[in-house]
């Protein structure tokens, strides 16, 4: 035990209205405490729940008192007694404890203790009795004589005094004494029977000699009856205390439920508003999806038309590509023919060179013949004429050969230029064929992509229609949910009204309990 829990001599007082309540399981572990319990002992609720109940036991309490308590409650009966408890800080407080076993289907399930503030004289007697018990001494009441024998003894003494005062008239005195005794004993016997019956009933309520001394200071029939009445009062106070505690918990729960219901109601209003917006949004989305499906179908039709046009263009391009290939072939053949012509021109130039050479030689021979004819004189005149004609013919042949050479050179240049242009045309047509092929490949790719787009568009259209169907179902479900939410909101409003009524009834019940408690 730490210093904080060491017993202190200072007593803790608390209001007379406190009903210090706790419950424990069958192993005496605390399962519930009320606010009065916490305020009095100084522990937090978390420090008490699940702990053994002897956490508040004071060392001044004799073990015999707790032994009597456990024997009584484990036997199924209620127990009442003055108990000195210890606070968390070591101080103490006195309680008038009423412990009851709580049963369910005939079996004890927990123990309930409701404690009230005892009168100062009860605390003083309990302190004295417990000190004597702890010291090993017996508890002696002020009076242990039964009421009936006491009345009989008192009557006998009165008769004796009467006899002594009237001894001179003994016969008359004896008669008077006998008559008085009979008139006294008859009602006294009846009173004794009634008192015995009440004693038997009170013992069934509570039978504890120690508590008779503590609660009354006596140990006789009247103290027994007083103890029973106190026991009945304590039981009523315990019932009222438990009802009050349950009512306070119920009221607190109902207030929390009322707040939660109001919060739920507010959230439902917001949710209903949001749900209305969702329904509108779903309707708009449904229209948008339908429009998308329509546009997708139209796009698919346009794509189909475009695919057909591309296929026609691709077919025309293939025809153009074929024609270009044929032109390329013809250009190749023409280039070959021109090359052959150029070769023939070269050969002709060679022949012309030979002719030119022959003409020069002929001209030279004619010149020599003319010289020789001139030397011959008259005899060589005819030969000179021939020589002149030969030389003229040679000059003419050389001139013609030169003209032909010039024409051949021009033709050769033109042919070379034509060959160059043919080569350029061939290159251009080759590039055109390659471009046409690339364009054809691109058109093929575009056609395939458009086919895929067409297929995707059809799938999108189908998916959009399915989505539209699903959205319609969601729209219907949202409408039903909105209707259900409105119904639930109305139910919550009704529940809130009912909760407020129950809270009011709980408050009235607590006020009624307070009236009985007072």
Write the layout of secondary structure elements.
Elements: E1 20-24, E2 30-33, H1 35-41, H2 45-48, H3 63-74, E3 79-86, E4 92-104, E5 107-116, H4 120-134, H5 147-165, H6 170-205, H7 209-216, H8 221-376, H9 381-517
Antiparallel strand pairs: 1-2, 1-5, 3-4, 4-5
Helix pairs in contact: 4-7, 5-6, 6-8, 7-8, 8-9
Subcellular location: Membrane
Domain Methyl-accepting transducer: 246-482
Main location: membrane
Q: What would you say this structure looks like, in words?
A:
This protein has 518 residues and is an alpha+beta fold. It folds into 2 domains: 3-232, PAS domain (Beta-Lactamase), CATH 3.30.450; 261-509, Orthogonal Bundle (Helix Hairpins), CATH 1.10.287.950. 76% of the residues lie in helices and 8% in strands. The chain is rod-shaped.
């Amino acid at each position: 035990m730490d210093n904080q829990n060491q017993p202190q001599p200072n007593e803790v007082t608390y209001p007379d209205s406190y009903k210090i309540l706790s419950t424990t399981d069958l192993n005496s572990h605390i399962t519930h405490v009320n606010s009065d319990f916490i305020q009095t002992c100084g522990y937090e609720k978390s420090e008490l729940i699940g702990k053994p109940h002897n956490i508040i036991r004071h060392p001044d309490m004799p073990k015999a008192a707790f032994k009597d308590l456990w024997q009584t409650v484990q036997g199924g009966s209620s127990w009442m007694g003055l108990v000195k408890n210890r606070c968390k800080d070591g101080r103490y407080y006195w309680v008038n404890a009423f412990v009851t076993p709580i049963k369910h289907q005939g079996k004890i399930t927990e123990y309930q203790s409701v404690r009230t503030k005892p009168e100062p004289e009860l605390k003083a007697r309990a302190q004295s009795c417990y000190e004597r018990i702890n010291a090993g001494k017996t508890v002696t009441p002020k009076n242990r004589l039964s009421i009936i024998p006491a009345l009989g003894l008192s009557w006998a003494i009165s008769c004796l005094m009467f006899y002594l005062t009237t001894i001179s008239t003994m016969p008359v005195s004896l008669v008077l004494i006998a008559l008085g005794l009979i008139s006294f004993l008859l009602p006294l016997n009846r009173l004794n029977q009634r008192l015995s019956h009440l004693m038997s009933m009170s013992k069934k309520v509570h039978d504890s000699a120690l508590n008779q001394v503590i609660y009354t200071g006596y140990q006789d029939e009247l103290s027994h009856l007083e103890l029973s009445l106190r026991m009945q009062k304590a039981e009523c106070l315990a019932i009222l205390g438990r009802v009050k505690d349950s009512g306070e918990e119920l009221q607190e729960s109902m207030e929390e439920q009322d707040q939660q219901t109001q919060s739920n109601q507010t959230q439902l209003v917001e949710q209903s508003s949001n749900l209305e917006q969702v329904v509108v949004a779903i309707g708009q989305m449904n229209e948008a999806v339908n429009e998308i499906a329509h546009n997708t179908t139209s796009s698919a039709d346009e794509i189909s038309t475009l695919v057909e046009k591309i296929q026609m263009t691709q077919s025309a391009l293939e025809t153009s590509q074929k024609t270009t290939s044929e032109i390329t072939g013809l250009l190749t053949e023409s280039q070959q023919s021109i090359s052959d012509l150029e070769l023939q021109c070269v050969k002709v130039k060679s022949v012309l060179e030979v002719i030119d050479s022959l003409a020069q030689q002929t001209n030279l021979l004619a010149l020599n013949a003319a010289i020789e004819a001139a030397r011959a004189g008259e005899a060589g005149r005819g030969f000179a004429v021939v020589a002149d004609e030969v030389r003229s013919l040679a000059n003419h042949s050389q001139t013609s050969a030169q003209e032909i050479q010039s024409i051949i050179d021009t033709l050769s240049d033109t042919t070379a230029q034509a060959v160059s242009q043919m080569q350029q045309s061939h290159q251009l047509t080759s590039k055109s064929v390659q471009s046409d092929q690339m364009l054809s490949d691109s058109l093929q790719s575009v056609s395939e992509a458009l086919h895929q787009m067409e297929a995707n568009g059809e799938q999108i259209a189908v998916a959009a229609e399915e989505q539209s169907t699903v959205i319609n179902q969601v729209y219907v479900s949202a409408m039903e949910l909105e209707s259900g939410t409105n119904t639930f909101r109305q139910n919550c409003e009704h529940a809130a009204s009912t909760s407020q009524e129950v809270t009011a009834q709980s408050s009235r019940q607590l006020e009624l309990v307070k009236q009985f408690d007072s």
